[in-house]
Design brief:
CATH topology of the largest domain: Rossmann fold
Largest sheet: 6 strands, mixed
Radius of gyration: 25 Å
Pfam families: ABC_tran (PF00005)
Strand order of the largest sheet: 6-7-8-3-9-10
Order of helices and strands: EEEHEEEHHHEHEHEEHHEEEHEEEEEEE
Organism: Tautonia plasticadhaerens
Strand content: 25-35%
InterPro entries: AAA+_ATPase, ABC_transporter-like_ATP-bd, ABC_transporter-like_CS, ABC_transpr_FbpC, ABC_transpr_MalK/UgpC-like, Mo/tungstate-bd_C_term_dom, P-loop_NTPase
Shape: elongated
CATH architecture of the largest domain: 3-Layer(aba) Sandwich
Distance between the termini: 24 Å
Structural class: alpha+beta
CATH superfamily of the largest domain: P-loop containing nucleotide triphosphate hydrolases
GO molecular function, one term: ATP binding
Number of strands: 20
Number of domains: 2
Bound molecules: adenosine-5'-triphosphate
Protein name: sn-glycerol-3-phosphate import ATP-binding protein UgpC
Length: 392
């Protein structure tokens, strides 16, 4: 698992080591290592059933792992009951306590931990002000909107723990503008307050906007952890390339022959083989691996429709003629789904009219920034990790 971006300078709030829990019917998590530092937010992303909630429940102490360790602020927490772990968790659609006013809701966790008095009251007021619910402190949840109720539940978690807050799909029932507004208030509060937050979400844009790092989980295993831009640009595994992004990358299987002078990519450009000189980073990374085939992942922005006024800026990259299958509107841009040879690619167009289904359009494949994967293991063939010069 690739994690090049852990900040070793800040003390870890949470360290999960080789955390494993297998449910008898399948599912669970395997050998998860995750470190979250002071001041950090980590977003956990993965398909449904991949083990995201299980991971949070293990950290919270609501499930006991079969093996592995959990360290909180440098102390082993594996034998601690949930209420002694000093953390707070918010579940999907968890309501505030209906019989308590907002102030008591916010202070509930503090009181449960025997913390009352003026310091707690100050903390409640600060959290309420940060989340825009200060004027609602005397109200009951029944007198609040859905968004305000969410703010109360999140505020309670933030008031309860200044060390670690675990959030499981906390914004999922809200409409996009409200989600964004509560999310940015929560980020501002966390930046002021410190501690660490782990967020589980299905919303990729939200995960990227919220987390300093993304943790991508599949079938109970962490596949990659890193800064959002790093994970997007340099996926460690073909799964990450296809999963991350809206839409994700298209994967094109090609043949490869690396010779002394050049590498030949077969089956990419229909009826031709594409030659790339030796010395280019990704070619060198493939040399010596004895791969007969390779998977090329192309994000929509790495496929460029060629229009006459752009042709003068062409670089040396494969150009092909693709046939348009479908065009989807995405507000200011449109997504074109097109085929050439055995491949299907997606790319953006900002043109208001055309192309239309059935049109044949020339496109350029930007191999300079594309990613390559071992077709058997799915792992990235990464020039820098393989020690080759990164020219390509
Ligand atoms: N208590 C349990 N007993 C048995 N199996 C469970 C239990 N909890 C979860 N599972 C199984 O473990 C797998 C992971 O579940 P989990 O809820 O962690 O996934 P998730 O990634 O949070 O999914 P979603 O995004 O749909 O909420 C699933 O296959 C689920 O059916």
């Amino acid at each position: 698992m690739l994690d090049s971006t852990v900040d070793h300078m800040r003390p870890p709030v949470l360290e999960a080591r080789a955390l494993t829990l297998q449910y008898s019917g399948g599912g669970g998590v395997q050998a998860i290592d995750l470190m979250v530092a002071e001041g950090e937010r980590v977003s956990v992303l993965g398909p449904s059933g991949s083990g995201k909630t299980t991971l949070l429940r293990l950290i919270a102490g609501l499930e006991r792992p079969e093996s592995g360790e959990i360290w909180l602020d440098g102390r082993s927490a594996i034998d601690l009951a949930p209420r002694h772990r000093g953390l707070a968790m918010v579940f999907q659609e968890q309501p505030p306590y209906p019989h308590l006013d907002v102030e008591r809701n916010l202070g509930f966790g503090l009181r449960a931990r025997g913390r009352a008095g003026s310091e707690s009251r100050d903390r409640i007021r600060r959290v309420a002000a940060s989340l825009g619910i200060e004027s609602m402190l005397p109200r009951r949840p029944a007198e609040l909107s859905g968004g305000e109720r969410r703010r109360v539940v999140l505020g309670r978690a933030m008031a309860t723990s200044r060390r670690l807050v675990l959030l499981d799909e906390p914004f999922s029932a809200l409409d996009p503008p409200l989600r964004a507004s509560i999310r940015s208030d929560l980020i501002a509060l966390h930046d002021r307050q410190g501690g660490a937050i782990v967020l589980v979400t299905h919303d990729q844009a939200e995960a990227m906007a919220f987390g300093h790092r993304l943790a991508i989980i599949r079938d109970g295993s962490l596949i990659q952890v890193g800064a959002p831009a790093e994970v997007y640009r340099r996926p460690a595994h073909r799964f990450v390339a296809e999963f991350l992004g809206d839409p994700g990358a298209s994967v094109l299987r090609c043949g490869i022959r690396v010779g002394p002078e050049s590498a030949r990519i077969d089956g990419l450009v229909p009826g031709a083989s594409w030659a790339v000189p030796r010395g280019v980073g990704w070619v060198e990374a493939m040399a010596g691996r004895n791969l007969g085939e390779v998977d090329l992942a192309l994000r929509p922005e790495q496929v460029v429709r060629l229009v006459p006024d752009r042709s003068s800026r062409l670089t040396e990259a494969p150009t092909v003629v693709a046939r348009v299958d479908r065009v989807e509107s995405r507000g200011p841009t449109r997504l074109v789904i097109a085929r050439f040879g055995q491949h299907r690619v997606r790319f953006w167009t900002e043109e208001v009219s055309g192309p239309d289904p059935g049109d044949r359009v020339p496109i350029r494949l930007d191999l300079q920034t594309a990613c390559w994967f071992d077709p058997v293991t799915g792992e990235a063939i990464n020039p820098s990790r393989d020690g080759a010069t990164d020219q390509g």
